[in-house]
Amino acid sequence: MFEEASEVFDNMFKSSFPLTFIVFIPAVLILVSPLPAEAAHEFTVYRMQQYDLQGQAYGTRNSILNTEARTVEAEVLSRRCVIMRLADFSYDKYQKALRQSAGAVVIILPKNMSAMPQDIVQQFMELEPEMLATETIVPVYFAEEDNELLSIYTQTLTSSSSQGSLSAAEVLLHTATANGFQMVTSGAQSKAISDWAITSLEGRLTGVGGEDLPTIVVVAHYDTFGVAPWLSYGADSNGSGVSMLLELARLFSKLYTYKRTHAAYNLLFFVSGGGKFNYQGTKRWLEDNLDHTDSSLLQDNVAFVLCLDTLGNGDSLYLHVSKPPKEGTPQYSLLKELETVVSSQYPEVKFSMVHKKINLAEDMLAWEHERFGIRRLPAFTLSHLPSHRSAQRSSIMDVRPHVDVSKLSRNTKVVAEALARVIYNLTEKLLQSVFGLPHQQVQEEHLSAVVDWLTAQPRAAQLVDKDSNVVSTLEYHLSHYLKDVKRHYVKADKRDPEFVFYDQLKQTMNAYRVKPAIFDLLLALCIAAYLGMMYLAIQNFGLLYSFVRRITLPKAKVH
Amino acid sequence: MTLFHFGNCFALAYFPYFITYKCSGLSEYNAFWRCVQAGATYLFVQLCKMLFLATFFPTWEGGAGVYDFVGEFMKSTVDLADLLGLHLVMSRNAGKGEYKIMVAAMGWATAELVMSRFLPLWVGARGIEFDWKYIQMSFDSNISLVHYIAMAAVVWMFTRYDLPKSFRLPVTVLLALCVYKAFLIELFVHVFVLGSWTVLLVKAVLTGAISLCSLFLFVTLVHSN
Which of A361, A484, B158, B168 is deepest in the core (most CB within 10 A)? Predict the structure, then answer.
């Protein structure tokens, strides 16, 4: 057959050149064609944080993944992709996977995070900072659970846990029936994003009467933080602070439009970016205002700086200070007013002052007011959290249900009330609310709409660039109420960057169904046996033929 | 999955053709070139069928999951052209009946194998993803070899002038079965919601039955005179 074939081909090529072309070009094209990406399941994965802060590397350093899936129960984990569900996740298992040099870790999060039992949520929240504390070589991904992914997990679990205790025959049978999964990410290796600008926004309400009016600064950072940037919705920290700031801006802009209620205080509002990265936005803003310009509201006569951080839940309020205010200063009067308002109007709220000195030896500043404290501006942070170490401030579990709008609105009322009493100097004069008219009251729907909008998208500092919808909408809102709304950008220094962000934080992962190599061998044996049988059958076709003939012969005679 | 898997599928799909070619004695008749001609006729007939289908059968626009009964039936009726094509091939070859049948069937089936199975195998079986469907496809190609041999035999019998009257009906029934086999199987799948392995089994059984019947008829016809 082959001789004939080669003869035919020879003739073909000699006779006509175009024919060669027609035969060979497709053949070459077929041979070099890339493999198709037709996967059993395709899903979106979110990579763990990767950033450098002050020269120190944090999070996972890798993003490429192409290994077979296992669960932690398997005996050998090296160079495998370990998949875990959040319900079974523990730090021990995570460490075990990393110690055995797993190729990657994929953590499956439930679709509805708020339906998880509280203890698991709490436990995971506490693990998040630990996972990020050191750098991890292998990629760590988070995926949202769906039925396909769950079935992949279950199949991997059965095949992982049944290894080792089976006979050879069972293993062979197992390879033929069970599926392995090859996890492959489509993206490239993660690399540092150059020239990333963190945006902050500033706006003001100018007071009347006199030249050198005191200034009150209200600050809240809008960015969020969690173990994976794309999953950081940051409802309580710090969506609640930003929404409170917007509401305060609205209330005081109303008051400042009337001559009778136009006070002799400048109000400066600052929505800062990069708050979770050591308050980079605030730091640059202070440098710009104090060192690089001649006239700025921050340079002279700042009454106090009030930072709002995590205020959307709980029945307690803490005023965090780095230096207890002295009597007679505006800060002291705000403290007193807060106490008065809380004790007279909201007795269910526990209010207290927490004193913590600035520790310059630590890498990270505790609260935003410490940035101001370092520059000798009187500042404090208001929060419902007793300590800056609370895991709620940097968790992907901090989603919309974590904010109780009624409590947020109550806290907003407290702050608005106390600020108004300081501004209008109403100390001890009247105990009922300053905000009498309906449009001058704190509007719960307004707060809840802002929180809803803020938590509709992840706002991690790596994701909010200067053209982002978050920044432009915030700017629009602020310019609606305030004057001189300005943007401030922070870019890390090129040679000695204070912060470096990395890309490839959201990727598509494919799970391909695969079989082990031994399965191919087994299949080859089976096919060889089958072909042998075919050969025998065709060789002995004559037997069947004569058999049929013998049966039909008598019939033929009858005809 | 791997190149090895592709090799497996390839061997499973192609070796039966090779064995048949070798063992049926076609190689001794120097029939390779004739088989290639039969394959070329296959290509021509398929082209005509495609043009015809594209011209006269607009795309079925019913809802998903609804089986277009009449449309599918009409489409398989176009497969009658295959019978004409096989007849054309056989009428152009001189020789004994078995020889004509084998040349036509081998050329036809091999052309189909190369045209409709090689590319999916190359692209699919070599990918990372494992799927049983490539093994099934290879089995299916074995079945279609048997199918075309039976079909060619039936066509040969049908076109003989000395076909006894009593043979006319069974041969016609077999012809119809050959043409509408794909349609019948599809109908089966649709009515009974069969798995892919069961479909393969049904196909094998049906093809086996058809080819046994045609073998009976063929043997009777050849040895009756």
Answer: B158
